[in-house]
Amino acid sequence: MIFIMAWRNIWRNKMRSIIIMSSIAIGLFAGISVLALYKGMMKSRIRNVIDSEVGHLQIHNIDFKKDYDPQFILANGAEVLKSVRDIPEVKLAASRSITMGMLATPTGSAGVQINGISPDLEYQLSQLEKKIIQGKPFDPKKKNEIMVGRKLAQKMKLKLRSKLVLTFTDTSGNMVSGAFRVNAIYQSDNAPLDEKNIYVGIGELNTLLGIQNAFHEIVILLKRDADVKKVQQQLQQKFPACQIESWKEISPETDLLVKTVDQYSYIIMFIIMFSLAFGIVNTMLMAILERTREIGMMVALGTNHVRIFLMIFLETIFLTLGGMPVGLFIAWLATAYFNKHGLDLSGMGREMMSSFGFGTMIYPEFPTDKVIGVLLIVAGTAFVSCLLPAIKALKLRPVEALRR
Amino acid sequence: MNTVIDAHNVSKVYNRETVPVYAINNVHLHIEKGEFAALVGPSGSGKTTLLNLIGGLDKPDTGSVFINELDITKLSANKLIDFRLKNIGFVFQSFNLIPVLTAKENVELIMQLQGIEKSVRDVRVQQLFRQIEMSDKMDVRPAQLSGGQQQRVAVARALASRPKFVLADEPTANLDSKSAFNLLDIMTKLNKEEHITFLFSTHDQRVIERARRIITLVDGRIVSDTAAVSTRHEKADV
Q1: CB atoms within 10 A of CB A267
Q2: A302's torsion region: left (phi>0), alpha (psi -120 to 50) or beta?
Q3: Residue-level pLDDT at A350
Q4: Which residue numbers of A have CB closer than 8 Å to B's CBs?
Q5: Cβ contacts (< 8 Å) between B110 and chain A: which residues?
Q6: How wide is the angle at C-alpha A366 spanned by C-alphas A342 and A35, nearest 5°?
Q7: Hey, where are the domains in chain A?
Q8: How many distinct helices (H) and strands (E) make up chain B?
Q9: In what order do the strands lie in the sheet with B197-202?
Q10: What is the DSSP letter of B216?
Q11: Is the separation of the CB atoms in B89 and B165 below 8 Å?
Q12: Other beta carbons less than 10 A from residue A200's beta carbon
């Protein structure tokens, strides 16, 4: 009966209840939408990191990443590469030669990471070809071609066919230089990386470094994200002298970002529900005030405090839960739509988005994994919101309440 | 006869700190089982306060109230709620039904609070609605009932828990004559046939005429306590 009373009580003032339920629905919609947007952004960021930046796994000489000294080539690189390609979970593996150097033009110079790549493999591995905004991919017939990022090109005033000089130390510690001509300018969703990374053919870089057919890095793309740990362990056992890192270890800032955003999502949800709690408390206090005499009469007749509390708690729960399915449904609907068609945030500025490593087209994803957490926050809000009105009701003395 | 209500030396003082006002002043009152007694007196004489003290809704500043030999002034707030539920039926001045429940649910609520089984509740509710002659209005919400009908439902609710006695505070104050007589007929019938004890406050002459005992309060003191010389229903019985 208390359950029935609570349910009917919330419909005594339909307009008021509908308004509070609507505000909860809107709040929930807003909260879930933010979570969905974050989830979409994080997923896209992770995909960017894996598919076009670092791959799932990388293998280096154990000393190479300490100082990026080109002498620390991957020992027996060709054998390692062959073994990697033989692992069934591996989709693609490519080698890179890497060194740090100076890019010089007639107008200035900049420190860069010079990546020697096998173009055909790299195009599949890091989608480099798709990132080209000016110029053409590497031409196997031409030599000393270089691909630079848009941000670096702007900084160094580089254009297609511009000539530049790369200077770095070879494996013997001698300074070597090579002249290159810009064949393409690329742009990824990560502006800081575009500014730092330049790409040349692996053969030309190896010749300058004096490492012939050796290389410094193997980048591995797996068929499934879930196999990262398994393959990493397998490789570590097989090549204990090598440094084998997953994308989370290579790009810890991405992992940290995902975890931080996860926490922020709950904080945002909490803030939204906290604001709504004031509305719920206000509504419930008004309801209690209007029913002072009735509640006093119920206590006079023998309704104990537990039942009075339960009635007010249920009313608050009904008010809160009433708006919840609607909010969830609208959020699911909106998320499904934008997940299919994408949400173009270019209005917010591509520069700003890419400076954080995000693309401008986001595909929000309904945060199914967080729904339980959100529901708990909503239930917690309902419980906290009912406390003040319930205490107010429990403090009523029937003899005073009946006089009103 | 058994003593149902025994109030000893009961006083209730308001504004104790400033100018003390004795709402009830040293009252002694005994009500036996099956009585149909009226508390009468002018407004402010302390009728409602005395009913509240007897009903355990308020605590006296001095004195004790025994219900069936149990001193209810010693009970904690929670125990008092439970005591009221099991022992006292209340009918208040303004109709005081829960508006979101139907007439039947209002009556059933008390029994449910007592933990009585559904099948037993249903039989009792049917019986009570027959007694108040409202079997056809069981599923109607209070707002669709007249004032008199609402008060009859309140009486049924007061009796639902089979209380030791019923306290009624000005039960006919807001009723027209026809409804008031109708309600009084039901109350007197229940008193006569089922020996239910009624103690009600009133200044309604129609109610006073039906009472078999009239206790007059003035300024918080009982100034007279007499058996009625002749009452309408006794006349009717003759």
Answers
A1: 10
A2: left
A3: 65
A4: 1, 4-5, 8-9, 12, 293-294, 297-305, 307, 397-399, 402
A5: 301-302
A6: 90
A7: 2-49+254-401, 63-240
A8: 8, 10
A9: B88-91, B165-169, B197-202, B36-40, B213-218, B221-227
A10: E
A11: yes
A12: 24
Interface ipTM: 0.85
A235 and A59 in contact (C-beta within 8 Å)? yes
Interface of B with A (CB under 8 A): 52, 55, 57-58, 78, 81-82, 84-86, 90, 92, 96, 98-101, 105, 108-110, 112-114, 157, 161
Which residue does chain A place closest to B58, by CA atoms?
A399
Q: Domain B3-237 belongs to what topology?
A: Rossmann fold (3.40.50)
| Per-residue pLDDT in tens (0 to 9) along chain B, 238 residues | 588 898 989 998 887 778 888 888 888 999 988 899 999 988 888 888 999 999 888 889 999 999 988 899 898 888 989 899 988 888 887 758 899 999 999 999 988 988 888 998 999 899 888 888 888 888 999 999 988 888 889 888 888 888 888 898 888 877 777 778 878 888 888 888 878 899 988 888 877 888 889 999 998 898 988 875 544 444 444 3
Q: Report domain extents, chain B.
A: 3-237
Q: What is the pLDDT of residues A323-345, one digit of tens each?
A: 888 988 999 999 999 988 888 87
Single out the residue of A141, A208, A212, A137 nearest to residue A175, CA to CA. Answer: A208
* Tokens coding B64: 């004790």
Q: In this structure, is the dihedral angle defined by the CA atoms of residues A399, B77, B222 and B26, taken in order, positive or negative? A: negative
Burial class (CB in 10 A: 0-12, 13-18, 19+), A27: buried
Residue that is written with structure tokens 């828990």 in the block:
B161
